[in-house]
Design brief:
With about 300 residues, the protein is α/β, with parallel strands linked by helices. About 35% of the residues lie in helices and about 30% in strands. It has two domains: about 210 residues, P-loop containing nucleotide triphosphate hydrolases (Rossmann fold, 3-Layer(aba) Sandwich), CATH 3.40.50; about 80 residues, Alpha-L RNA-binding motif (Alpha-Beta Plaits), CATH 3.30.70. Strand 7, helix 6 and strand 8 form a beta-alpha-beta unit. The two termini are about 30 Å apart. Adenosine-5'-diphosphate (ADP) binds next to strand 2 and helix 1.
Length: about 300
Amino acid sequence: MSIIVNNVTKLYGAQKALNNVSFNVNSGEIVGFLGPNGAGKSTMMKIITCFIPPTEGNVKVCGFDINEQSIEVRKQIGYLPEHNPLYLDMYVKEFLEFTGGLYKIKNLKSRVKEMIELTGLQAEQKKKIGALSKGYRQRVGLAQAIIHDPKVLIMDEPTTGLDPNQLEEIRGLIKTLGKEKTVMLSTHIMQEVEAVCHKVIIINKGEIVADESTQALQKNSNKQIFTVEFDKTVSKTALKSIEGVTEVKQMEGNIWQLTTSFEKDIRKEIFDFAVQNKLSVLTLNKEEQKLEDVFKQLTK
Ligand code: ADP
Ligand code: MG
């Protein structure tokens, strides 16, 4: 296990930003940390990276305790903070040599060259950071985060503000890095999780509301919702007996919402049910639930 978060609570004054949060990240996984603005993503990441202490609870990174072994934890972690703070007046190469120097890396020059190649900064290496586009600044941020070859890479909204091409490139780079490292990235974009992550942890108002493989969440999202209006009263139990129905909710009067847990279309079954029970179907609508909807539901 690379990251173990145990009952972490964080208070900013009277405001609770994290409420008893627990989750694990396995070695070699790319995990998406998903949540709306203000959910507590950055706070959690700052705690994992030892930038701020938790009010309560504990985190272990590669077996090291953030409260007691913060220097060891920092060695294991590469961190790309939310607004990617860079020295805009420094040249790319100079900046990477500077950050590498802080870690007392041996063969610094060749390591910087390696990072420049890995992140595709060859053509920009002699430019000032301030002259780079947002996508290239993110690459510098990534190069800076992995220069000491950490086992764990934490990225806070690494693709926010990028144009579609830059987005693709940075996602590709994250996937490449994810082959060798444990990666945790935060985002408020569901598609991002689908595109790059093995697992998704959803946080809302400081609490974890989902912790599943992306596949499981996708499966869960395959459910379909049928809204049907009958002309007469029906019992909930009777509706539950329709093949494939997993949930029944009364909307109002004779309008019902029936949910299936899989992709099967049960409109025929609903009609057959109506005929058998001498009911007329006044309206019938089918909605598909997408991953996006699952996120909305969980974070409403
Ligand atoms: P996210 O990254 O998911 O958008 P944050 O972790 O930044 O969320 O914030 C979680 C909550 O904590 C928000 O309500 C935010 O306003 C509050 N918060 C964050 N940082 C501070 C701080 N330094 N002082 C007071 N409140 C803060
Ligand atoms: Mg944030």
